[in-house]
């Protein structure tokens, strides 16, 4: 799913490239190549324990499970961080559109209003979900450690 999300973002960027003004092309290109590609590779690396063969000793299985739970905690923390990074990227995008006069003011106000409503709903709910996942995997590690005592 992480790779599919990256490919959808890349496809949307390529498909809409002609419509975008120069600042939007540069900013979105940088976001897709640097952030989304790096993010996708890092998330894939964090999920590596889930893809490995679990047919080994019980101790090895517990070690891999604990490692994956730790990586799931990192993924939840990364999700919480990326929420704020996305907000910052959108603010920079709109500011650049205003500063370089690549987005007409009336269109910019509509985009800001719509984005504000969307972010007002999505940011708290996504952050809460990621926080709950982080807590869940911390509890899973504690339970796993209790089983190993």
Keywords summarizing the entry:
149 residues; mainly alpha
Set out the fold topology.
Layout: H1 2-16, H2 22-46, H3 48-51, H4 58-99, H5 105-148
Helix pairs in contact: 1-2, 2-4, 4-5
Number of strands: 0
- SSE string: HHHHH
Morphology call = elongated
Strand content: under 5%
Largest sheet: none
Continuous helix count: 5
* Residues in helix, %: over 70%
Distance between the termini: 36 Å
- Rg (C-alpha, Å): 20 Å
Poorly predicted ranges (pLDDT <50, ≥5 residues)? none
Question: Which structural class matches the secondary elements?
Answer: mainly alpha
Task: Write down the overall mean pLDDT.
Answer: 90
Explain this structure.
With 149 residues, the chain is mainly α. The protein contains five helices and no strands. The chain has helices spanning 2-16, 22-46, 48-51, 58-99, 105-148. Helix 1 packs antiparallel against helix 2 and helix 4 runs antiparallel to helix 5. The longest helix is centred in the C-terminal third of the chain and has 44 residues, at 105-148. The protein is elongated and about 65 Å long. The mean pLDDT is 90.
Short description:
The chain is mainly α and about 150 residues long. Helices cover about 85% and strands about 0% of the residues.
